[in-house]
From TrEMBL:
DNA-binding as UniProt keyword: no
Protein name: EamA family transporter
Key words of the record: Membrane, Transmembrane, Transmembrane helix
Domain of life: Bacteria
Classification via Pfam families: EamA (PF00892)
SUPFAM superfamilies: Multidrug resistance efflux transporter EmrE
Membrane-spanning parts: 30-53, 65-85, 97-114
Organism: Corynebacterium uropygiale
Domain EamA: 2-136
Gene3D superfamilies xref list: 1.10.3730.20
GO CC annotations, alphabetized: membrane
Similarity remark: Belongs to the EamA transporter family.
Length: 137
């Protein structure tokens, strides 16, 4: 199931780039990011309320709160940078650089989370790195 969800994330991320590039043409990139955030908040909380997941809020630990808040701050910074880059650059150039986050995630997963480095992960990360640079030429 996680593979299906990950593929869905990739498809929706691609659509995000295309829709955003079209929508941002005459809009300040920070304003566009704020509008996008409101839509995401309404959608996410609608799902939480609709599924009853809100009942789990009291059970969230302090550590989880801290790291979820840090994740939210990182997401916000990422989106502000992404929309700023998208406003100024071509989507076909901005998106591959943004997806270089996959390689950065792999490195951080090794360092911070202690995940094991397999030859397939290292090869894939190397190919993504090479592909990013090829797309930028």
């Amino acid at each position: 199931m996680w593979v299906v969800l990950a593929l869905g994330a990739a498809v929706f991320a691609a659509l995000t780039s295309i829709f955003a590039k079209i929508g941002i043409e005459e809009v300040d990139s920070n304003l566009a990011t704020a509008i996008r955030c409101v839509v995401i908040i309404v959608m996410a909380w609608g799902i939480v309320w609709g599924t009853g997941a809100w009942r789990g809020i009291p059970d969230i630990s302090g550590k989880s709160w801290l790291f979820l808040l840090l994740s939210g701050l990182a997401t916000g910074a990422s989106w502000l940078c992404y929309f700023g880059a998208l406003k100024l650059g071509d989507a076909s150039k901005v998106a591959p650089i943004d997806k270089f986050s996959v390689v950065i995630t792999i490195v951080l997963a090794f360092i911070v989370l202690g995940e094991k480095a397999s030859w397939t992960v290292l090869l894939g990360g190397g190919l993504i790195t090479a592909g990013t640079f090829v797309l930028l030429l």
